[in-house]
Amino acid sequence: xxxxxxxxxxxxxxxxxxxxxxxxxxxxxxxxxxxxxxxxxxxxxxxxxxxxxxxxxxxxxxxxxxxxxxxxxxxxxxxxxxxxxxxxxxxxxxxxxxxxxxxxxxxxxxxxxxxxxxxxxxxxxxxxxxxxxxxxxxxxxxxxxxxxxxxxxxxxxxxxxxxxxxxxxxxxxxxxxxxxxxxxxxxxxxxxxxxxxxxxxxxxxxxxxxxxxxxxxxxxxxxxxxxxxxxxxxxxxxxxxxxxxxxxxxxxxxxxxxxxxxxxxxxxxxxxxxxxxxxxxxxxxxxxxxxxxxxxxxxxxxxxxxxxxxxxxxxxxxxxxxxxxxxxxxxxxxxxxxxxxxxxxxxxxxxxxxxxxxxxxxxxxxxxxxxxxxxxxxxxxxxxxxxxxxxxxxxxxxxxxxxxxxxxxxxxxx
Length: 414
What we know:
Layout: H1 15-28, H2 32-46, E1 52-58, E2 63-66, E3 76-78, H3 82-90, E4 94-95, H4 100-105, H5 108-116, E5 119-127, E6 130-138, H6 148-216, H7 223-250, E7 258-261, H8 262-272, H9 274-279, E8 283-288, E9 294-297, H10 299-318, E10 327-337, E11 342-351, H11 358-361, H12 379-389, E12 393-399, E13 403-413
Parallel strand pairs: 8-10
Antiparallel strand pairs: 1-2, 1-6, 2-3, 4-5, 5-6, 7-9, 10-11, 11-13, 12-13
Helix pairs in contact: 1-2, 1-6, 2-6, 6-7, 8-10, 10-12
């Protein structure tokens, strides 16, 4: 027996039950991505729609960034966009098909975003007189228009979601601050231990290398023994390289700062790995969203950071067996103000490699921690120290099987 008679529409979801279930879920979820997935599911439970895209404000850049996965390349909105301004002033949703005049008022790039996302409804996420995000909802899958009851239900649901997302965002910020404090203390302690260990290893290592080199002269006539002695010297050199890396982490060299153009420095670094990128069939997209990419920094040390991150990305993509394209996206954009005289410049490296397991994210800056088959685990630890000495910040975000993004924030005078 059919569930509905011919031409009879399914009953609307029970409003009280839906809101009750959603409120209960809000009290239990503090993970922002899990919350976003829950919101999208509830919207589709109210009325099946073709798409849902949620944008949230990134305080580091002042842009609204897409949170859930998209079929097309993710897009961003700015706080100064006309769409955001309209939502802020009117404090209500926008129905795209009913207001072509309003859509025509937006600049072409914003009209393209609306078209690309297939949006029919655009809701603001407003807290304390500020638009903290937007939700783009596509057309209904059955092709019908949204009923007043559906719009009312969506508005109530999204108003509740707004405060839930704000709570989750604040929780995320506080958690990240605590992690950074713990990481700084932990690495400072490890640095002291590393300095002592490196000193204790280096002295006897020098004596061992000198002795082997002296004894190796007696084995030149025997190819087998000479090969063994050469191998010993090679291993000693490898240990010495590790010790040198420890010293670089524990007792870094002083900064030799000068005016550095970050855009030019990244281009110079990419030239060093051009052949490697070509051999691995890796495409590089370099984009910047600010004309001023100059700041005070140590050129050589920053180049070391960029080179290490790029080579890590190359290795991650070379072992990625998921079949999607190998792309490294490098971007430079203006960050949040630090004070009246300076702000952060954000440099991002995003690859499509194998990614890093969530349980390993907190350890990537630890010396000797590595996910590589052959590696000392000192590269990112040294990068962390260099960025911190520039009074900047470095963070890693990753999704296993999809890729890794490393963001570097460096202070810049304005």
